[in-house]
Design a protein that fits this description.
heterotrimer; A mainly alpha (272); B alpha/beta (439); C mainly alpha (307); A: 272 residues; MetI-like fold; 13 helices; C: 307 residues; mainly alpha; 15 helices; 2 strands
């Protein structure tokens, strides 16, 4: 594009910056304030005190363990959803006959099942197969609920792969599997990147499934840990905010490190 | 494009790693791995659920104390986050994953579990430990009972509702703490004239509104009015006392008693409590827990200017002004999954000196008969004594309505209460709407 | 089209093409998995909608009772309208802002990269924490309204009013999710070939004209992808509403998922709660079918394949 400065865009971007930073300021300032100072000043006051006490309190608990659990559950969920949704979407786009049509309809139907609606039956299913209070007990339902959107996004991307490319693969004598690995997956890169972000955030933020399907500290996740700073009649705001920051720091670092790759991965999302 | 071809195997590899990690997670499964180091111990582990919060210390301390000297099995404390605790009880108590001992609020909220046959009748525990029954205030113990059988042992302090007020503001205005409803109305007018919010109300929550009905229906019509509803007669809502109380509340609201922006006020610190401690509001009708919470954010205010009284009487009302409303206590109930010997022995700890002292140390008022022996050791003995006297002198301790009849029935009623104070519905419309909610 | 016809004339290619297609068995693991962990529980929910059940013991078969209650309950249609209204408002706010910000962030300037990183931050915080901090921020006496009322007057009563609560929900949703959609648009704009803009520049087209006649049409698929994420999130999400407004004031922000949650887990009417869940799935499926139909996402095969 042209190099001349875009004042309107610049102005809007600063406005947006303000909107984004106010709550972030409240979280950061709140986490290093003493409980008393935070309550007196309110969430947007200028910092009046500084203490790292809340971080110490959070780290004294099993927070790192929760963090590890969340990471494992998130990565497993993302990988599992992709591993299952990729071949499925391939069938939907390239398969023949009623199977591919039916499968797609099935997943369209599943797009909007609210997880809180199925939580009790889910508890039965997970208990029945002996996965209550395990990582898999959270990963499997979370991944299952990520399947419909994954299939929808993947198929939309795969449909944009032109027939020439399939023909070229066919001319090389490539099997369905080889075509899948060599052609379909590489060209689905933007969809895969999108889903890694979306499903990852979904799993990272999950509350209801871990709440009901796990019990012991060994498998507890960060979201549950955050809620342990919210009481029946109040909350420990500095500790809560400190925990929020601690749980976000690794993600921020990951983002800063992988930002270029992420944006590049997202190039041409949904095909062009 | 070629370097991407290993994606699929790599993904499978990741799954394999995740699987092996899960296997590790399974290996240190807590249950069934009794240590057996105490004399005569059996190898059972009984889990205890209690809400995780800043008042969990007495239980957290009692568990290791119990375990080292247990003649039976071991206890494992599993603190639960407050958010979703009720959901979790619903899905877990019915089947596998059921805890051995769980915290509940007694009353109607626990009745479903008793009816489902998963809660153990404590008659046997009282036989083994005769003192267990006589150690607690009978009126409180009764809240954990149903049909003449006892299902819960109090584990926490009592929490009566008080009218908190800002002494400095009252002194400035030349007022005393209101003892009658008309004095309260007068105070409302005076503070409104001074540009101070008369009563701090957290309008963003439904349950904060319920407190006004608990107080006024009792003062106007006596405890029988709500008792009838609690006993299962939903038409009790049509009692004239309920309408009268509702009209009084509607009058308070329309006269500006709650200020002009209460509907947006958050509950607790940074919201309704801070209004009181910062001198922006003069009064606050709330459970006794507010004391500790305000102290946490403003100790100077609590030390100098925080006053508290039993909520005012209503002139000509049938209710005894000494009646108290609030949370009598919370209870530990034993499920059929527990090792009974262990569970009963653990419940027998709930009135031990160590436990009672721990409760007092964090500002709670124990409901044990020996509570007054230790009250002087509290950080705020005056406040604890005031509550203890209030509860002991009260002819009736009215359990918070949502726990008394069960939140399942009360939840939509609380929404209607919120709508009434907001002015979305009139008092007669309120009664109609509530009657229509008949379960 | 032409290529396909040529291919058809050459039998050797048709055979080769056949070998390149996946059999239905490729779909079996994913479909089975989804069936076990999503459809089986869903089937139970449908069954429960014909029962009366308090969540404990055995459900009692009571036929259409729950459904009759559902159709009598005037709060249910209200909740559907609130949900759809919030969804439309969310789309109207998030889509244009995300598209503009994404386009802006796709530029090569260094300061944009830095700002875009800051814009991204909300996405990394947990939903619960976001709702809690916004709740604090909206307090009329200690939060943002307290500071605003000094400037513009008023009482600061915003989240406690029906419109204010709805606007707050849309705003918080925008704060949390625009970064995600912005990221999608940023990636998509980057992949628009420069030659298109160079050609437009030669034609003398300005920045605004370029945006509307090149960028926007090229973003069509991204817009649809974004829309789908918004619709799915808007129709199932309830965490933010639960923490931020609890469905209030009164019932003015009680969406259908929240109402379902209240019926099932507050009132323990699992029968009626399940019926609401089924209704919600019907509404949501209708909306997503409409969306996929309109956008052409429900095509079974690639248009480029010419079948």
């Amino acid at each position: 594009m042209k190099p001349r400065p875009n004042w309107i865009a610049g102005g809007l971007s600063v406005l947006w910056l303000g909107f984004i930073t106010i709550p972030i300021y409240a979280i950061v300032a709140g986490s290093v304030a003493t409980g008393q100072a935070y309550m007196k000043g309110g969430p947007v006051a200028a910092p009046a005190s500084f203490t790292l006490d809340s971080f110490v309190r959070v780290l004294a608990g099993p927070f790192l363990r929760y963090f590890l659990n969340t990471t494992i559950i998130t990565v497993s969920t993302v990988v599992l959803a992709l591993v299952l949704a990729l071949p499925l979407s391939y069938v939907v786009v390239r398969g023949k006959g009623w199977a591919s049509r039916g499968v797609f309809r099935l997943f369209l139907f599943g797009l909007a099942i609210p997880s809180q609606a199925v939580i009790i039956p889910m508890f039965w299913v997970i208990s029945a197969i002996g996965l209550y209070d395990t990582w898999w007990g959270v990963v499997l339902p979370t991944a299952a609920f990520s399947m419909p959107i994954s299939v929808l996004i993947l198929t939309s991307g795969m449909r944009e792969i032109t027939n020439d490319l399939y023909e070229a693969m066919a001319l090389d004598g490539a099997s369905a599997f080889k075509t899948f690995i060599r052609l379909v997956i590489p060209l689905s890169k933007p969809s895969i990147a999108t889903l890694c972000v979306f499903n990852g955030l979904h799993a990272w933020n999950g509350f209801l499934f871990p709440l009901v399907l796990t019990q012991s500290d060994d498998v507890k996740v960060v979201t549950l840990g955050l809620y342990s700073f919210i009481f029946q009649y109040g909350a420990d705001f500095p500790a809560l905010f400190a925990a929020v920051i601690l749980s976000a720091i690794p993600l921020v670092l990951l983002y800063l490190f992988a930002r270029r790759a992420l944006v590049a991965g997202l190039m041409g999302v949904g095909g062009k | 494009m070629t370097q991407k071809k290993h994606f699929y195997p790599a993904a499978l590899g990741a799954i394999a790693i995740a699987l092996s990690l899960v296997a590790c997670g399974d290996s240190d499964e807590p249950s069934g791995s009794g240590t057996g180091d105490a004399a005569g111990a059996n190898d059972t582990v009984t889990t205890v659920w209690r809400i995780a919060d800043n008042t969990e210390t007495p239980v957290a301390n009692a568990v290791p104390r119990f375990n080292t000297s247990s003649q039976f099995g071991q206890i494992e404390f599993q603190p639960q986050v407050n958010q979703g605790y009720q959901d979790k009880m619903r899905s877990s108590l019915g089947g596998s994953g059921r805890p051995g001992i769980y915290q509940n609020w007694g009353g109607g909220n626990n009745r479903d579990y008793v009816e489902a046959g998963v809660v153990v009748d404590l008659a046997e525990a009282f036989e083994t430990y005769p003192e267990l029954k006589s150690a607690f205030m009978p009126s409180v113990l009764d809240v954990g009972s149903w049909d003449g059988k006892y299902y819960g042992i109090p584990l926490s302090g009592t929490q009566p509702v008080l009218l908190f007020y800002n002494k400095a503001l009252f002194a400035d205005a030349g007022l005393e703490a209101p003892t009658t409803f008309s004095e309260l109305q007068n105070a409302v007018d005076v503070f409104k004239g001074k540009g101070i919010i008369p009563i701090s109300l957290a309008g963003t929550q439904a349950w904060t509104h319920q407190i006004y009905w608990q107080w006024l229906v009792d003062r106007v019509g006596g405890p029988e009015v709500f008792q009838r509803i609690a006993d299962g007669d939903w038409s009790g809502w049509s009692d004239p006392a309920v309408l009268k109380a509702t009209e009084m509340i509607a009058d308070l609201a329309s006269s500006g008693a709650f200020g002009d922006n209460y509907a947006s006020v958050n509950y607790g610190a940074g919201g309704s409590e801070t209004l009181l401690s910062e001198g922006k509001a003069a009064m606050y009708l709330m459970g006794s827990w507010a004391y500790g919470s305000i102290k946490g954010s403003d100790p100077d205010f609590v030390a100098n200017d925080l006053g508290y009284v039993n909520p005012p009487a209503v002139e000509g009302g049938k209710g005894d002004p000494r009646d108290v409303a609030g949370n009598p206590s919370t209870f530990f109930s034993v499920t059929i999954s527990a090792d009974k010997d262990t569970a009963f022995a653990f419940l027998n700890e709930m009135y031990s000196e160590d436990y009672v002292k721990d409760l007092i140390a964090q500002g709670e008022v124990p409901v044990t008969m020996n509570a007054s022996d230790y009250v002087d050791q509290a950080e705020d003995p005056a406040f604890l004594k005031y509550q203890l006297d209030m509860v002991q002198e009260a002819p009736v301790f009215q359990q918070s309505w949502d726990t008394a009849i069960g939140d399942d029935k009360m939840s939509p009623v609380k929404t209607e209460m919120q709508r009434l104070i907001l002015g979305q519905i009139s008092p007669t419309e309120f009664i109609e709407a509530v009657l229509a909610l008949q379960p | 089209m032409t290529r396909k016809r040529i291919a058809d004339e050459r039998p050797v290619h048709r055979d080769a093409l056949k070998t390149g297609r996946p059999g239905a068995h490729w779909a079996v693991p994913g479909a089975l998995f989804f069936a076990l962990f999503a459809l089986v529980p869903l089937g139970v929910v449908i069954y429960l909608s014909f029962t009366t059940w308090k969540g404990l013991g055995d459900p009692q078969w009571t036929g259409l009772t729950s459904w009759q209650e559902l159709f009598r309950d005037r709060y249910i249609p209200q909740s559907v309208w609130i949900m759809l209204g919030l969804l439309v408002a969310t789309i109207c706010v998030q889509l244009p802002v995300a598209a503009l910000l994404g386009t802006w962030a796709a530029g090569p300037q260094r300061n944009r990269a830095v700002l875009a990183s800051i814009y991204f931050l909300p996405l990394l915080l947990s939903t619960a924490a976001i709702a809690i901090v916004w709740k604090q921020l909206m307090d009329p006496n200690f939060g943002l309204p307290a500071h605003l009322k000094e400037l513009v007057g008023g009482t600061g009563d915003f989240i406690g009013t029906s419109h204010g609560a709805l606007i707050t929900l849309v705003m918080v949703g925008a704060w949390q999710y625009i970064p995600f959609h912005m990221l999608l648009f940023q990636g998509a704009v980057r992949s628009i070939p420069d030659v298109l803009y160079q050609a437009a520049e030669i034609d003398g087209a300005g920045r605004v004209r370029c945006f509307f006649s090149i960028t926007l049409p090229q973003l069509r698929n991204t817009i649809i992808t974004s829309l789908i994420f918004m619709v799915v999130g808007g129709l199932t999400g309830f965490d933010t509403v639960l923490i931020l407004t609890m469905g209030g004031p009164g019932r003015d922000t009680t969406t259908t998922p929240l109402l379902m949650y209240f019926e099932a887990f507050r009132s323990y009417h699992f029968g009626k709660g399940s019926a609401i869940a089924v209704l919600l799935i019907v509404v949501a499926t209708t909306v997503s079918l409409l969306l996929t139909r309109l956008s052409g996402y429900d095509r079974m095969e690639s248009t480029k394949e010419g079948v």
